[in-house]
Amino acid sequence: MNIAADILPWPLIWLSWGVLFACLSVILPRAPWNLLRHNGLESVWVGGVGCVGLAWSMQAGIHPGLELHLLGVTALTLVFGPYLAIAGGILSLAGVTALGLYDWPAFAVNGLLLAILPVLVSVLVGRLVFRLLPHNLFIYVFLTGFFGAMAAMAVVIMISAALLLAIGAYPMAIVSRDYLAMMPLMMFPEGFITGMLITMLVVYRPSWVRTFDDRDYIIGK
After folding, report:
1. Which of 13, 136, 161, 200 is deepest in the core (most CB within 10 A)?
2. This model's pTM is above 0.90
3. Which regions in the chain score pLDDT beneath 70?
4. Is 43 helix (H, G, I), strand (E, B) or coil?
5. Using a CB cutoff of 8 Å and minimum separation of 24, what contacts does 205-209 make?
């Protein structure tokens, strides 16, 4: 999921920068920064950003652009909401890129794939679960948390694979054998870690989880 700059065509690199700037110009001003200060969660957000960056730094793969690593973005989305999650993902990416683990020219492509895309998937899953299913603690944890994280991982891997195939970076045989075949192995740990973390937070620190409300999931159940 770490797309290397040398396999990307320059028109795509410049286009991705334009799309990323357009997205961030809308997202960052709307991020509830005051909510972090009001609730005293600045250190929690910074810690979450650091954990995501650490997860992205521990990547493994055979070919450039086909590396795999955990995301952690669904957990950021559920705890802080989509705007702060995207801001945190971009900050995490900036950190690992500054360390030389990712390429600066490919920053926008990786930002769209690793920060914005999984947040959108997590938000979509959460809204569908909230709208279509009973408001139950276990449904929130297992579907919004566990399944939402698995879905985000699956979508990121599939879109990354489609991008690499579209630009002709690798043939289908290599992408299927060395990348897509690993998708199930990455989906379960992503879902398990996210589900476990969200479970602990809604039990011990429910006030930290912005997408969780006792009135919807516990009181009167």
Report:
1. 161
2. yes
3. 218-221
4. helix
5. 207/39, 208/39, 208/41, 208/44, 208/79, 209/78, 209/79
Is-contact 68 95, C-beta < 8 A?
A: no
Which DSSP category does 60 fall into? B
The total number of structural domains in the chain stands at: 1
> Which domain covers residue 49, as residue numbers?
8-217
Q: Which two tokens stand for residue 74?
A: 């669904």
1, part of any domain = no
DSSP string of 113-129, one letter each residue: IIIIHHHHHHHHHHHHH
- Give which of 160, 182, 156, 180 is closest to 169, Cα–Cα: 160
Interior/surface letters 88-107, b for 16+ CB within 10 angstroms, e for the rest: bbbbbbbbbbeeebbbebbb
CB-based contacts of 200: which residues, under 8 Å, 6+ apart? none
Condensed to tens digits (0 to 9), the pLDDT of residues 163-209 reads 999 999 899 999 999 899 999 999 999 999 999 999 999 989 988 99
Kindly state the tokens that stand for 204: 């011990």
Q: How many other C-beta atoms are found inside a 10 Å radius of the C-beta of residue 208?
A: 16
Q: Is the C-alpha dihedral spanning 92, 95, 101, 103 positive or negative?
A: positive
Residue 85, φ and ψ in degrees, nearest 5: -65, -45
Residue 33, domain CATH: 1.10.1760.20
Could you tell me the sign of the dihedral formed by the alpha carbons of 116, 216, 130, 56, in that order? positive
Cα 114 to chain centroid distance, Å, stands at 5
